[in-house]
Specification:
Helix content is 0%, strand content 32%. The chain is mainly β. Strands 2-3-8-7-11 form a 5-stranded antiparallel sheet, with no helix packed on it. It has a 4-stranded antiparallel sheet with strand order 5-4-9-10, with no helix packed on it.
Length: 105
């Protein structure tokens, strides 16, 4: 069973309804209810309901990558790749850049 997500908290798991993309919420401001979509459709809690992703490198959402909105307020971790593009409040999410390691001189 799947249900729309009324509010997000860190640790919530979301699934796309149009592909096999799945994410875990890492960060979201308290009291803010962002609309998280994948492939233009609202993501839901529960098992994914979309068709399987075709094999190959055409996945738009990549497993193991962290995605963030333009302000850096919302952060998601992809746990299953999919062909849909993640968006937050209608704006595409970007892959979060890795932090540089400190120098070890």
């Amino acid at each position: 069973m799947t249900t729309p997500v009324p509010s997000l908290r860190p640790g919530d798991q979301l699934a796309s309804t149009v592909c096999t993309a799945r994410v875990v919420v890492i960060r979201v401001p308290q009291g803010w209810r962002p609309v998280i979509e994948c492939g233009g459709s609202l993501m839901v809690t529960g098992k994914p309901g979309g068709p399987p992703s075709p094999g190959g490198t055409d996945a738009a959402t990549l497993i193991g990558k962290r995605y963030t909105d333009a302000t850096g307020s919302v952060e998601l971790l992809c746990t299953s790749s999919g062909v849909g593009v993640l968006s937050c409040d209608g704006e595409p999410m970007m892959i979060k850049a890795a932090k540089p390691l400190p120098a070890s001189d």
